[in-house]
Design a protein that fits this description.
Layout (H helix, E strand, L loop, with lengths): L2 E3 L6 H8 L2 E2 L8 E2 L2 E3 L2 E6 L2 E6 L4 H13 L1 H8 L9 H14 L8 E3 L2 H17 L6 H8 L1 H19 L2 E5 L14 E5 L5 E9 L9 H19 L7 E7 L6
Parallel strand pairs: 10-11
Antiparallel strand pairs: 1-7, 2-3, 4-5, 5-6, 8-9, 9-10
Helix pairs in contact: 2-5, 4-5, 5-7, 6-7
Length: about 260
């Protein structure tokens, strides 16, 4: 769990953000354009959009707004109209948990809240979207998959992996799937290191399989790894850089 602030605290970070053009967020290897303040307005640049908000807006509030702008406010409103909460998209339920959290008194004397696991998941999603949209627009086909319940888990993992590469100093080039039926298969994106020029073709796999809990779990993990490698190798064209398959096994809550 972590802390969530509805107002930006004072300190060196705020002063630096007001006077420096770039800063390095914790856990990253690249400098990022900071927000900057003019009068009572705070400005942020994401891709080709200049955000202007009240100066006191926190970074957490910005991430919430960015998720809404990426997926569409109309989509959130339509989801909230569903009478049964369980039928709503998991992202909408995550955001409802965030709103419920900040509606009650803060947990800390400085106005901070202790984030639950659900709120943490929502904030991390927003942070990943932020890193992927600093310099590039998110592909529409990926946005559609994120908004579709059946495809969200795989799309969320793809966003996570791409954001990790972005924070490690790689440029992300998303590959188009529209003509896959006629052209050679390919990986999800090409990651190019900004300093060395090294290119990696990245194929993401997120696997959920009940058998992993039984005695044959090790066998299933090895089989999944072999199938992932074989599939990703087939998907790369002769002119593409070497593809490194990535696998992930997700454990349901309570297991």
């Amino acid at each position: 769990m972590g802390l969530l602030r509805t107002q930006r605290p004072g300190g060196s970070w705020q002063r630096d953000a007001a006077h420096r053009c770039t800063y390095r967020l914790e856990g990253t290897r690249v400098d990022t354009l900071s927000s900057f303040v003019g009068g009572d307005t705070r400005f942020r640049i994401v891709w080709n959009v200049l955000w202007n908000v009240p100066q006191e807006q926190s970074f957490h509030q910005f991430l919430d707004a960015l998720i809404g702008a990426t997926l569409g406010k109309d989509w959130f409103q339509e989801q909230n109209k569903l009478p049964v909460a369980a039928d709503r998209h998991v992202l909408v339920r995550w955001r409802s948990s965030l709103l419920s959290l900040v509606e009650r008194p803060p947990d800390k004397p400085d106005g901070a809240y202790i984030r639950t696991g659900v709120v943490e998941a929502y904030m991390h999603f927003g942070y990943d979207l932020y890193w992927l949209q600093i310099a590039h627009k998110l592909p529409e086909r990926l946005v559609i998959r994120l908004k579709t319940r059946e495809y969200f888990q795989g799309a969320r993992y793809e966003v996570l992996v791409a954001a990790v590469f972005a924070r490690a100093g790689f440029d992300i080039e998303w590959l188009d799937d529209e003509d896959d039926a006629e052209e050679e298969k390919h990986c999800e994106f090409i990651a190019t290191h900004k300093k060395t020029g090294t290119k990696l073709g990245v194929e993401t796999k997120s696997v959920r399989e009940a058998e992993r809990y039984i005695s044959g779990a090790t066998y299933h993990l090895r089989r999944i790894s072999r199938e992932t490698y074989s599939d990703s190798t087939k998907r790369q064209s002769s002119n593409s850089p070497k593809t490194y398959p990535l696998s992930c096994l997700l454990t349901p809550t309570g297991r």
